[in-house]
Design goal:
188 residues, alpha+beta, five-stranded mixed β-sheet, binds zinc ion
């Protein structure tokens, strides 16, 4: 449970520690606003993802693995790096091969990305959490999640690596996919 009163109090103290005057008219509402903001951008620490996913059974004709690939690209990502509590943001691309005609409504992917983004994170773990959650709930033959993000902690401070983008990829594969790949490798 996010304690907004405590955040408010701590932000007041932070402003004081920075040498600011929290009673300055322009700053008076800031602790309250920051507390409200953290409740929103860290909501991934609160709600359980149980009803996050709804898998739709779709009647489809059986076809070969290649033609079954579903890609959802450019899903917005907004998260906070847990080392500096500064935002990192960019986009997620998800690629999966459904198993047993299990597919998911497209908008649900954005909700899954959003849920796992909204807490202090590192990009690598965020990528893995999204992929693993989709794998465990959708039971696809394979799922691959790629995140491309800019980190404000790299842009505003430290190395000032302007314009640099961090790319992370995480893949989960069912044993069926591994067998398929082994077969293809054997052919070559
Ligand atoms: Zn950072």
């Amino acid at each position: 449970m996010i304690n907004t009163e405590k955040i408010e109090h701590l932000i007041k103290e932070l402003l004081e520690a920075l040498g600011e005057d929290p009673q300055r008219p322009e700053l008076r509402e800031t602790p309250k606003r920051v507390a409200k903001m953290y409740k929103e951008i860290c909501s991934g620490l609160e709600e359980p993802p149980t009803n996050l996913i709804k898998v739709f059974k779709e009647k489809k004709i059986k076809c070969n693995l290649e033609s079954e690939i579903i890609e959802i690209n450019d899903i917005p990502v907004y998260s906070i790096c847990e080392h500096h509590l500064l935002p990192f943001f960019g986009k997620a691309n998800i690629k999966y091969i459904p198993e047993n005609e299990n597919i998911m409504g497209l908008s649900k992917f954005a909700r899954v990305v959003d849920y796992f983004s909204k807490k202090p994170q590192v990009q690598e773990r965020l990528t893995a959490e999204i992929a693993t959650f989709l794998y465990d709930n959708l039971h696809p033959i394979s799922v691959q999640v790629t995140l491309e993000c800019s980190h404000l902690c790299m842009m505003m401070r430290g190395s000032r690596a302007h314009g640099s983008i961090t790319k992370t990829t995480f893949t989960c594969k069912s044993p069926k996919m591994e067998i398929q790949e082994e077969k293809e490798e054997a052919k070559n």
